[in-house]
Amino acid sequence: MLAAKHAYPRRWPESTKRGTGPDKILPPPVADSSLLSQQGVVIMAEFPISFTLEYPYTRTLGPVIGPFLTALRDGRILGIRCGDRVLCPPMEFDPDTGETLRPDLVEVGPSGTVENWTWVAEPSRKHPFQEPFAFAQVKLDGADTTMTHAVKAVGQAAMSTGMRVRAQFREERTGSIGDVYFVPEDDARDQSIAPGEGEVEISTHLISLTYDDTLYPHAARYAQGLLDGKFIGQRISGDKIAIPGKGYDALARVMLTEADDVELATTGTVLSYTVLTPVKYRGQTETEPYLSATIILDGAGQSLTQQDIRNIPLDEFRVGMRLRAIFKPAAERRVDDVDNDWMYPSIGDVVERWEPTGEPDVALDELPESM
Amino acid sequence: MAEHAAVIGIGQTKYDAKRIDVSQFGLIREAATRALEDAELGWKDIDAVVIGKAPDMFEGTMMPELFLAEALGCVGKPMLRVHTAGSVGGSTAIVAASLVQAGIHQRVLTVSYEKQSESNAMWALSIKMPFAPTMVAGAGGFFAPLIRGYIQRSGAPDDTGIRVALKDRLNALKNPYAHLKLPDVDFDMIANSPMLWDPIRYLETCPSSDGACAMVIGDEKQARRAAKPAAWIHATNMKTEPTMFAGRDQVMPRAGLECSAELYKKAGISDPRSEIDCAEIYVPFSWFEAMWMENLHFAPLNEGWKMTYEGATALGGDLPVNMSGGVLSSNAIGASGMIRFAEAAMQVRGQAGEHQVDGARRSLGHAYGGGSQYFSMWIVGDQPLA
């Protein structure tokens, strides 16, 4: 249960009225679920939310970076001629003028000079080394520009501007920038590298981000409502009910409080729907066509979109149909995917099914306009 | 009074499902260098660059404008990135035009692109993202219920969408840059294609494309000096509204109705249907042609479908729409809006080749994005607005 009391000012203080979003940057969730007060806003921390976004993106490497990465795989470093200079890493165009460069690639290095550097004392999971190392701007012999890369040195004291370094290639090479790293020239060892097969043309990058957030008070009350088997909206200007509420009334430009919360009926009317034929993509779990309905709860000024319908045959489903939300048993209700995003709101995983009430359909010309 | 501005160069890439012959640099440079050549200018002649693309999620490149700056010859010059979801290509062109209209710059290069093959837009638009819109089943799953809402209101015949798709797919055969070309396309092929998001069939849907579009926008002096005819920008307009809002009409968004009404007023147009010669509008799903005909005041409410049905929007009709084949034929999302704006300009410059509308003197470019919530539009003509 939520122990919290709202403590929003009913209206914005004059000093913050302009240019201040209603949703404050939140402090991190607290373990004891006590209330945090920041600038007069009381935060509830019962609903910390975490989310990981991850996708293996690809990159088409093109006529210059492709050969550059192919050469790295094969133990060589290439630059490109640009006027009377050699650029390394190579580029498709002259960075000063924008003119396209002929792919006139030349081998540079493997040794070079450190022009600048910084020490990474506490590497992160995604750094090229898990022990302390340096990032340095290395001007390879034969090149006129520097390449920023990792230097593996025994300690910060071993690093200096102007020091000589040499490329070392990893045992496992995939045609990526991580195939190479640098060491102080005295630490370098000779390597014998067998060329790989084919050209490196496309690279893959698993990009992964984890976000942590905490539900805002109005969103927390909405989420708690869902857990309690209720739809909680908020009354806004024009006697309309927004579901979920935003915590503020965008038209009247006032904060909304718990006093503006309204429990809506669990019955509603189908405004529209589509039958979805699943398209394959990473993470897709659907295989068969299914119904997705837009339902407006009785009294609401805003519809619930993307409501899964699995219990009603496709050919019996129709606009105007009256439905009632049948909630899951309390212990099975989940609100994991309810977040502070009110643009495409989720009702979590709390509804077992939308069941026909048996009432006559609402005539099409009597449907609410807020499709 | 703002300065005159005009489109003096246009460049498009070939649109395709996978342009694995070029990097992101190469893709935008293909369009940009063609636009510069068309304007008979070099990189050094450009004062500023305005770039647009759809959400960073689509390629997984955070703030691509930063790493693309050198590729667009921006070193030492101002660069801006614009983002308004699917409408971004249009709003990017408008930002570029405004820099000239304000008298700040004389020659602005504007580019927008998407390299959809580097990710998967269905994934990017389906996954739950923090602080950002989520559409449980991609754009099609989101827009299909809106189309059904339109059909209910208007009583439009079920095959309206098929007719739009057939017209656009036939037009695409006349456009050398178009991605999806189906030489044997006919009514039955579209009608019999799988129902993806009822009532949207597979062939009533846009493809996923790689591609870029670019324009050079110049001031009056540049436009009069240019060897090729200019497309004079008569008016631009943008409007926005929330995606979800109690009382919002998602089928016929007020932002679009007001945006176009204001646009016509700025351009001195009182009867758009008769005063505009042709239009390139953002139709990612066939039915949106009918819906936008109403939203753009070309037809009374609930009667937009009649224009498609009567052939008014066909290449030989009284208001040809999407002569290029439209978004249904090429959808490099970030570029799609700019392609509409550029194709509208190509018509009044008389450079649209096989899909040229004879005697086009005034045309509309239109884009929308998000959950039908961002609108950007312009009117271009073969002469400056008096």
Question: Any descriptors?
Answer:
heterodimer; A: 371 residues; mainly beta; 2 helices; B: 386 residues; alpha/beta; nine-stranded mixed β-sheet
Please describe what this structure looks like:
The complex is a heterodimer of chains A (371) and B (386). Chain A starts with 35 loop residues before the first strand and ends in a 15-residue tail after the last strand. Chain A has 2 domains: 198 residues, no CATH class; 156 residues, no CATH class. Chain A contains 2 helices and 22 strands. Chain A is elongated and about 85 Å long. Chain B has 386 residues and is an alpha/beta fold. In chain B, strand 10 and strand 11 form a beta hairpin. In chain B, helix 3 packs across helix 14. The longest helix of chain B is centred in the middle third of the chain and has 17 residues. The radius of gyration of chain B is 19 Å and the shape is globular. The chains are: A mainly beta (371), B alpha/beta (386). Chains A and B meet through strand 3, helix 1, strand 12, strand 14 and strand 18 of A and helix 1, helix 4, helix 5 and strand 5 of B.
Q: Approximately how much helix is present in the residues of chain B?
A: 25-40%
Rounded mean pLDDT score of chain B: 93
Distance between the termini of chain A: 34 Å
CATH class of one domain in chain B: Alpha Beta
- Strand line-up of the largest beta sheet of chain A: 9-8-7-10-11
Overall shape of chain B: it is globular
Main sheet makeup of chain A: 5 strands, antiparallel
CATH architecture of one domain in chain B: 3-Layer(aba) Sandwich
Order of helices and strands of chain B: EHEHEHEHHHHEEEHEHHEHHHHEE
Note the beta-strand portion of chain A.
Answer: 35-45%
Largest interface: A-B, 69 and 69 residues
Largest sheet of chain B: 9 strands, mixed
Unreliable stretches covering 5 or more consecutive residues of chain B: 130-136
Q: Predict the CATH topology of one domain in chain B.
A: Peroxisomal Thiolase, Chain A, domain 1
Number of strands of chain B: 11
User: What is the number of helices of chain B?
Assistant: 14
